Amino acid sequence: MNPLSKSFFEKNTIRIAKNLLGKYIKHKNMIGKIVETEAYLHDDPASHSFNGKTKRNTPMFDKPGTAYVYFTYGMYHCFNIVTNKKNIGEAVLIRALEPIKGIKQMQKNRGRDDNLCNGPAKLVIAIGITKKHNGVDLLNKNSSIKIFDNKENFEIVQTKRIGISKGKSLPHRFYVKNSKWVSMK
DNA sequence: AGAGTGATGGGCT
DNA sequence: GCCCATCACTCTT
Q1: Which positions of chain C lie under 7 Å from any protein Cβ?
Q2: Tell me: the pLDDT tens digits for A90-143?
Q3: Strand C near-CB residues (< 7 Å), A 106-165
Q4: Which residues contact A78 (CB under 8 A, 6 or more apart)?
Q5: Which of A69, A108, A139, A166 could form a disulfide with A134 if both were Cys (CB 3.0 to 4.6 A apart)?
Q6: Is the CB of A79 less than 7 A from some atom of nucleic acid strand C?
Q7: A110, A122 in Cβ contact below 8 A?
Q8: How much is the pLDDT for A73?
Q9: For residue A148, what are the β-bridge partners?
Q10: Quick check: A44 and A164 in contact, CB under 8 A?
């Protein structure tokens, strides 16, 4: 299992959102397979970067492969990976994982046995991502979070995004067809 | 199965 | 002062 290369994250953001499906994300003893993503573009009214750089969204303008972890709804965090080598503020939100390894630990982190990773805030809690990971370089050897390549064949579904108030019509959500691990709503 | 809602706090006009 | 890329729970069909 090899880590994804720098060039993987330097491509077009939509393409990366699609290509991330099926890949493995690892933190400590836990591994999840990415089954749902959303793309957030620089000219996208739903993107945190839409109105330019601010204190909160600074990591979005950092180099591709950087983690952007933001705080939301007073109690949750969500995990994104910065994309596009132009540093224009684009990222892919990871919305759901299929738990692969360290499921006991995920259950402990979540305080329940099911619905461990089927939502952006849920997976962050399950695999122990915190605000400390905001801005870290996932391509760095020393990063505790890493993304690994995985070859697998499956169909991809492209739909509208979830839980946003602006940019609702854009078809920037992607998930693995028939996966029981995606967030529903 | 679907609709409604409280929790809870940082970000930004 | 309102908004929010959410979740889990309750109440209703």
Answers
A1: 3-9
A2: 999 999 999 999 999 999 999 999 999 999 999 999 999 999 999 999 999 999
A3: 110, 112, 115, 119-122, 161-165
A4: A69, A70, A72, A93, A120, A121, A124
A5: A69
A6: no
A7: yes
A8: 96
A9: A3, A24
A10: no
Q: Once rounded to an integer, what is the mean pLDDT over residues A60-72?
A: 98
Q: Could you tell me if A23 and A148 are in contact, meaning their C-beta atoms sit under 8 angstroms apart?
A: yes
Model pLDDT for residues A27-58, shown as the tens digit of each residue? 999 999 999 999 999 999 999 999 999 999 99
* pLDDT value at A185 more than 70: no
pTM (2 decimals)? Answer: 0.97
Q: Tokens standing for A130?
A: 């915190």
